[in-house]
Design a protein that fits this description.
The chain is of the alpha/beta class. Strand 4, helix 2 and strand 5 form a beta-alpha-beta unit. The longest helix is centred in the N-terminal third of the chain and has 23 residues. It has a six-stranded mixed sheet with strand order 1-8-7-4-5-6.
Length: about 190
């Protein structure tokens, strides 16, 4: 017979193990429905999260003055070529400080072909679970959203994710997700 005290310890250990695996493998903000939004680009064309249902969506929260953001932009342009119509890419900047001029310059200098939309902070607050105690976030931060609208992975820039954000490990993360979903889409 298992005593309740031992059972509680076992359950707690199992819960902590699962939670740590989820946090390490998925990212801090994963395993939930992607918060909805409708945001404008520099030409006031609106981009709505619901327009991307049925395909993979990569959302990049970025800044135009961030060197790691430039590295991720290059990798996302490669991802666009690699995955074609299976994946959409959307970049989000916060205004202010970003402006139409800073975004136009960034697009030209980095040859960005994906839309960059402007948020006044509300969308970022919902994606990053902002609270008064945790009112900021680092860029770049990449959210991987599956065709059903769930955040399945997210990556902020750090020493451990540098090669995902600015290198070929991005494809090691995305390939299994996109390939696993392909047979289900054909049915």
């Amino acid at each position: 017979m298992i005593q309740w005290g031992h059972m509680q310890k076992w359950i707690m250990a199992l819960a902590l193990t699962v939670a740590s695996m989820t946090a390490f493998g998925q990212g801090t903000y994963s395993n939930r429905r992607a918060p909805s939004f409708s945001l404008p680009d520099a030409n006031f064309k609106r981009y709505d999260l619901l327009d991307y249902r049925g395909k993979w969506l990569l959302i990049d929260f970025m800044r135009t003055d961030c060197p790691h953001c430039k590295g991720l932009s290059k990798m996302l342009e490669k991802a666009k070529l690699r995955y074609g119509q299976k994946v959409a890419i959307l970049k989000i900047v916060i205004t202010p400080p970003e402006t139409q001029a800073t975004v136009a310059k960034y697009i030209a200098e980095n040859k960005v072909t994906s839309p960059i939309v402007f948020d006044q902070g509300q969308v970022a607050a919902s994606y990053f679970n902002a609270t008064p105690q945790r009112a900021s976030f680092d860029t770049p931060h990449l959210f991987v959203i599956n065709p059903a609208g769930q955040i399945v992975k997210d990556f902020g820039h750090s020493d451990s994710t540098h090669d995902v954000i600015e290198g070929e490990s991005l494809f090691k993360e995305l390939d299994p997700l996109i390939q696993a979903a392909a047979p289900a889409a054909k049915k």
